[in-house]
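Hi support team,

I'm opening this ticket because the web form for multi-chain structure prediction keeps timing out on my end. I have pasted the exact lines I submitted so you can reproduce it. The total is 532 residues across two entries, so I didn't expect it to be a heavy job. Is there a limit I'm missing, or should I split the entries? Thanks in advance, R.K.
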Amino acid sequence: MDKLELAFNGRDYKVEQRNGAFFVRQRPQGGNYGQAQQIVLVTGSHTLQILWLETGRGRTLEQFPFAYIVAEKTWAPTSETFLIPPELKEYYSIGAWNGACMDCHVTQGQSRFVKGSQWDSQVAEFGIACEACHSEGHEHIERNRDPIRRFKIHLTTKSDPTVTNPKRLTAPDSGLDCGQCHSVWAFNNMADKIDFNRHGASFRPGASDLKQRFVVQPNTQDHSEQKDFIRRTEPDFFSNRFWGDGMIRVTGREFNGVQASPCFRGGEFSCISCHEMHLETPRSVSLKTWARNGQLKPKMDTDQACLQCHQTMTAKITEHTHHASDSPGSRCYNCHMPRTTFGLLHAMRSHQVSSPSVNESVAYGRPNACNLCHLNQTLAWTAQNLHAWYNQQTTRRLPLQCSGLLKATLDNAPLSPGEWVGSQLKKPQVVIGFTPISFTA
Amino acid sequence: MSDPYAAVRFDAWKSLQTLPGFSDFPFNYTSDDRALSETATRAIKKWFRTVRDVNSFFAPETGLDSSGRFRQDIFQRLRTERDDKPIVLAE
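Hello R.K., no limit was hit. The queue was backed up. Here is the completed structure from your submission:
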């Protein structure tokens, strides 16, 4: 980064290295450079890295307005690494890390708002460390100083009650361990928000609810009072996070999808059905590949992910899919977990297991799995096939081809080259602002 | 590649790079509108003149006709049905 020079939105930025630390100076274009601000923190690792600067206001951080895209080895304006209207140039600003990002990008953070844009934030550890998933380690460490105790546990299959092992939890509790961060959540009330702000999360891995918070599912009956409040005070809250039918559409909130899946009701389905947080040895893939491919368990990028439970489907996949056995149309994921969530600059698989229907496209603009591949076909064609193959009824008129902004963001969809250049797309006229949130993060 | 949303332009580029002949195709997705259009035009010309194999068969799902020519009608239909309401995804 030393001697890096960047410009964006009428300002120049220059990075310099001194004594092993990096500093940024900025100026309005044509003006003079101001005081150096030290880069003190990075969030993100293997996909996108966002840098944070000291502000001189206690522990309040300011975002460096450029993000580093790891795979491309390039810098881009941070606002252009999110799916937001082009008019929005500054996405996160002073204090945003303290007020929002640190809720999940550290272990046991306490944001501690002071006044104005000043914060006195504290953390147990930066990043997602052991205690984030395994709960507090003090007692575990103290009691296991005794080698006899360790040996007794080693010789039995019993778990050690002084620490949480998500593998030994029920599937819903194990999922919530991940979902404490990987969900859209909100506070139960203002008192809980203040408590969270001052003392951090009271949830500990192994618990069955988030204590001061709850997972927000738009269409469930729980927390109706809180959800009504959110709708009144932040009208865009749900549309910025969910499709119209309540399916999560933002990356990083996968537990919402898992929890809303029919598989979840069976009590066996959780995040670690397919993912692992520690790469098993001997390694079948490199650490880098594993990390960049969703930290999947072996074979969980194949039909085996579903067949581990749905074993009876093994012998009748093509009978079920009506596609050739070696085609993408016969892969469970492609129909039941299509790429309808977005974040970190790419479309990701929905984590809400569902079956494709045209209704979701007509009513909510959500691309259905069929037309994500069959771009050339109409919804009527899709409806006809879904009816013929699965007796699926279509309850809405079908004048539309599958559409939606997300279609253009599909990682693996082949681009259609042609004569049209694409500059005719009408730019949005409405500028969306951010409303201060009360009960939400 | 000239979409008003930067994230869409980025993914259009990454998608393009998955096609044979385009793996090292350069594109600055944060450029100004003119540069974006010029690059998109260059990509199309490259496809049509250099990469496209006239003897190949192109599946209809690609939005191309059987000889690899762009199906304007399909694209226009998709485009007219696009929901242009401004969107923010709160990552």
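A quick check on our side: Residues 2 and 38 of chain B are 9 Å apart (CA to CA). Let us know if the file doesn't open in your viewer.
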